[in-house]
Structures are given as structure tokens and as C-alpha cells.
Amino acid sequence: METDPTYADIVAARDILARHLPETPMWSYPALNDAVGATIYVKHENTQPTGAFKVRGGLTLLATMPARQRARGLITYSTGNHAQALAYASAVFDTLCTVVMPAAANEYKVRAVRALGSEVVLHGADLAAAQTYAESLAAERELALISVGDNPSQVAGVGTLHLEIVSAQPDLDAVIVPVGSGTSASAACLVAAELAPRCRVIAVQSSASPAGHDSWHSGSLVQRANQTVVEGLATGRGFDLPQRIMRRCLSDFCLVSDAQIAEAQLLLATHAHTLAEGAGAAALAAVLAVPSTFSGQRVAVVCSGGNANGAELAALGRNGSLAKSQL
Ligand SMILES: Cc1ncc(COP(=O)(O)O)c(C=O)c1O
After folding, report:
1. For the chain, what is the domain count?
2. According to the model, what pLDDT value does residue 325 have?
3. Rounded distance, CA 269 to CA 303, Å?
């Protein structure tokens, strides 16, 4: 798939993925709704076999890639969930996969990628440094370099989660999507434009890594400081393909702090029986940041992943005991 992805590509990806993945659940939790003042539907991408929605994109990418290219082997760069997605898909399609991850990557994600049979190279302080190194290894080893966000088939694949959301709840007022590169938020735009034009699609990013937000608001691709501790949102630049689509039909792009994301993580744990990694809680954090905007509305939040790192788990425990002592 060379051209920009379309709604039809997302429908085609749903047929591909039906062979590999069941639909993920989406639940509404009365205690969470009471706490928030809106009807919240949590789309549980944390229940994917890799613990994150990215596996939809990885499987679609490999399924639609020319066999000749697949046979050469792949290389990519990732903070962890895109890595697990490609590692999972490479195991399914019997392809060699190498992933460059930042040196301080989440050790659980590193272990999971290795256990899926891919090679992990730890390099650099952040995703940008990992990307540069992956580009040089791709040239040296003659591997197909897979971008983390600019692949039409990945956008089509992750778009299937939004088909599931809108099919289950056709009358939503809003769907809120966390953004690193923007594959999921841009796919949400394509689905909503076709099936639910009254549903606002809202993107959210950490204020400590606002490149996607600033790119969308300024209408050009910009680079920004990348200081969030929230792994899936830790990008320092805007990505061309998702930004192009979001510019056409995204309703709004907001920022939340890492502390607000941690609060939302705790609320998901205590009110929705859900262990989310930070990125998976960012959509709920966007509702909590301006509850009056969503008061009484029907809002889907994409819990995009559940691969919390050790620091996140420890903070969850600390914040949980603090909240309890204040009861
Ligand atoms: C759990 C999680 N949520 C959200 C995102 C952001 O997704 P995207 O890069 O498609 O915007 C990522 C990216 O890796 C992620 O791992």
C-alpha cells in the first residue's frame, strides 16, 4: 500500500486481522462514570497478546508486504510496543526482525521482544537516536527499514480498533486517542469521517513531549523537547502521514501533564479493574483535565496499552496508598 490509507483499507485490514486476533472488549464502568461525570467506554487494547494496540498494525504491515521484502528481514526502532508488534508479526510470518530500542528501554518490553524471537539492539538516549542507528544498520545489513509512524498499512491495521469502537457504540460524542506518532488518532479520523461524523476525534499527548500537538496546531512538522516518562508518547517530532490525515479531520489536540496521566492510571486501576501503562491512561487523563467539556457525554477512551514499567508500577502503588490515606 503506497498511497495514503483510506477507510476501505481499514475494512480490508479487519478481514486480515480476523485470522489472527479476536476483537478487544470495550466496557463502561459505573464507578468510573460517577467519578468522571460522563459515560466512559474503555477500549481495552491492553488485552492484546502483546499488551498494546500496535500489534494490529504490525500484523497488517507484514501481511500486505511483498514476500520478497519480508524475506530480506526487517529492522525498526521503538520505545517498546511497536517493537513487540513487529516481533509478534515477524514470528507469525516467519521473518527475521531486528529492533533498535533506546538504551534505557522498559526491561519488560525488551524481554518480551526477545522472547518473541527478534533481535534487540539497545542504543541511544531516546527514540530519535535509536532511529538514526536503525537507519545505519538497515543500510549495512540490507534490511527493510520500518518507520514507527509513516506506514499506510500500519495506520489501516490500527484503524480496525476504531471500527470496533464505532460499531459497538455508534452514538458517541467523542473518542479520545493517545498520540506518539499518530497512527491510531489518524485512523480514528478516517473511521469517524465515514461512520460517525458527529463524533469528535480528540488526540492527546504529554505536555513534556508536545511535538505532535504543536505540529497539528501549527500546520507544519516540528521538533520539540522529548521529556515525558510515558513511553508510548515519547516522540520528539511530528510524523508526516498521520499529521496529514489529522489535519483533515481531527477535532482537537490537547496536552496533559505526566502527573495527570499518573492520576488517570490510578483511576483506571481502582475504578475500572485495569492496569494501563501511562500511554494507555492518557485519554482518560484528557477527560479528567477538563471534565466540564465532557459532562454528561458518551466518550470512548482508548486504553492503548498495559505494559507498565517498574517505575510506573511503583508510582501506582505509592499513589494508591496516598489516595487511601486521604479517604
Ligand atoms: C501504549 C501506547 N499508546 C499510544 C501510543 C501512541 O501511538 P501512535 O504512535 O500510533 O500515536 C503508543 C506508541 O507506541 C503506545 O505504545
Report:
1. 2
2. 67
3. 12
Residue 1 lies in a domain: no
pTM: 0.96
**How far is residue 314's CA from residue 303's CA, in Å, rounded to a whole number?**
20
Q: What is the CATH number of the domain that holds 81?
A: 3.40.50.1100
From 126, 181, 303, 309, the mutation candidate for ligand 1 (largest count of ligand atoms within 8 A of CB) is 181
How far does residue 222's CA lie from ligand 1's centre (Å)? 19
Interval 18-67: pLDDT, tens: 999 999 999 999 999 999 999 999 999 999 999 999 999 999 999 999 99
Is a pLDDT exceeding 90 seen at residue 1?
no
Q: What is the pLDDT of residues 67-78, one digit of tens each?
A: 999 999 999 999
The residue length of the chain stands at: 327
Report the half-sphere exposure of 167 (CA within 13 A, side-chain side).
Answer: 11
| Residue type, position 315, single letter | A
Give the rounded distance of the alpha carbon of 174 from its chain centre: 17
In the chain, the N- to C-terminal Cα span, in Å, equals 54
- In angstroms, rounded to a whole number, what is the distance separating the alpha carbons of residues 39 and 327? 24
Strands across the sheet containing 39-44: 26-27, 39-44, 298-303, 174-178, 200-206, 252-256
Do residues 192 and 48 lie in contact, with contact meaning Cβ atoms separated by under 8 Å? no
Listing from the earlier edge strand, what are the strands of the sheet with 97-101?
A: 119-122, 97-101, 74-77, 144-146
Catalytic residue numbers, as ranges: 54, 304
Q: Specify whether 105 is located in the same domain as 171.
A: no
Q: For position 146, what pLDDT does the model report?
A: 95
Boundaries of domain holding 224: 7-52+152-325
| Amino acid identity for residue 35 in this structure | A
pLDDT in tens, 94-140: 999 999 999 999 999 999 999 999 999 999 999 999 999 999 999 99
* R_g over Cα of the chain: 18
Is the domain of 125 the same as that of 205?
Answer: no
pLDDT for 226: 95
Distance 325 CA to ligand 1 centre (A): 33
Give the residue among 157, 142, 185 at the shortest CA–CA distance from 55. Answer: 157
